[in-house]
Amino acid sequence: MNASDHPTADVLIIGAGAAGLMCAAIAGQRGRRICILDHADAPGKKILISGGGRCNFTNRFTGPEHFLSQNPHFCKSALARFTPEDFLAWLQRHRIPWHERKHGQLFCDRSARDIVTMLLAECARGGVRMQMQTGIRRIEKNGLFRVHTSRGIFCAERLVIATGGLSIPKIGASPFGLKVAEQFGLNIVPPRAALVPLRFSGEEKERLRALAGISLDVRVSCNNRHFREAMLFTHRGLSGPAILQISSYWQPSETIRIDLLPDTDIHPWLNRWRQQRPQARPATALAELLPKRLARMLCDELRIHAPLSAISERQWQRMDTLLHDWRLTPSGSEGYRTAEVTLGGIDTRELCSSSMEARRVPGLCFIGEVVDVTGHLGGFNFQWAWASAHACATAL
Ligand SMILES: Cc1cc2nc3c(=O)[nH]c(=O)nc-3n(C[C@H](O)[C@H](O)[C@H](O)COP(=O)(O)OP(=O)(O)OC[C@H]3O[C@@H](n4cnc5c(N)ncnc54)[C@H](O)[C@@H]3O)c2cc1C
Fold this sequence. Notes:
CATH architecture of the largest domain: 3-Layer(bba) Sandwich
CATH superfamily of the largest domain: FAD/NAD(P)-binding domain
Structural class: alpha+beta
Bound molecules: flavin-adenine dinucleotide
Helix content: 25-40%
Strand order of the largest sheet: 18-17-14-15-16-13-19
Strand content: 15-25%
Radius of gyration: 25 Å
CATH class of the largest domain: Alpha Beta
Oligomer: single chain
Number of domains: 2
Number of strands: 22
């Protein structure tokens, strides 16, 4: 018998991120011998940069409607079995202070480091062995899974892939999980950057660049989905929560529609201005409702510069349309360099929804962002990482 035929552990987990650490902690505490392998120099790096350093670790309103997947039902079982309240119970055990922001988003009071420290403490309680800075060279399955690494061969009966999505390669993201799926003949839903700023080119880029720095509350829609959130004009295009959310639904060459004044009917407002200040310029009047630079740009766009009293109903109608249904066609997204998540991944039809195990490859599991389940902005992606990890760990 070759030395590499001896199992290193009951379970090998590749990826010491949100899902990998959670899965290791739970399975370790259930008595499984767990070894985590990761090529990065420290665990949980994405957690540390998340939520502006405060980690938006879950969302009170977690439900399947906040996730995109080719099979929208797949996430239901795992989400129901490990809820935001279950995660809060972990925080309570570790006395980690947190607070709620709008839309049910929960953040650490102090720092995202609290979450990583908690996960590492729970892993230690479960006797988890962790091998960081370990490059994975190849995987074989011949009875056991044999993982060839820069630190030698690791063997186990079960292998969990928790290597996340493709965003932010400079902190360790890689297409590793997709390659493993390919190796074992599992179908992949093509990946794409999501929760990502949108870029523009040509004239549209120049027009928007003049507005860089402006942020306002809008309603943005595309493909029958809409989000009411803040939008930010940047030097390259559009960002802010409204845009990140809609980017997950936007496809190249499609147009997004923006309501710049979602709560305002401009007609009563216009009548008041016309009566009280008929000689005022439209840009001056509009600046009561919108940031000045934006008001001026919209008036320039429609060439509406005459005093209010001289502007025709038709021109106001065009302004009304522009204000409530501004149509823009992004040239692309900022891509994985700045995206928060990756859409697509391991096709959920390949996995069992209660254990995350590949139906066609016994012992091989996929959890977290590498799976074709992607949350909206607001803590849903971490909740999926915790819930899918929990489902897998309790079945290991
Ligand atoms: C800037 C930013 C902010 C975010 N903020 C939030 C937020 O506030 N709330 C929220 O819900 N979500 C947020 N997200 C998304 C969230 O971080 C991810 O969805 C979540 O971390 C996914 O967990 P995971 O365990 O699947 O993958 P990850 O946490 O990415 O962990 C993957 C691990 O696998 C390792 N790995 C990758 N490739 C290899 C390889 N080839 N060999 C060995 N190891 C490998 C990596 O080093 C890493 O440790 C944010 C993402 C970004 C980029």
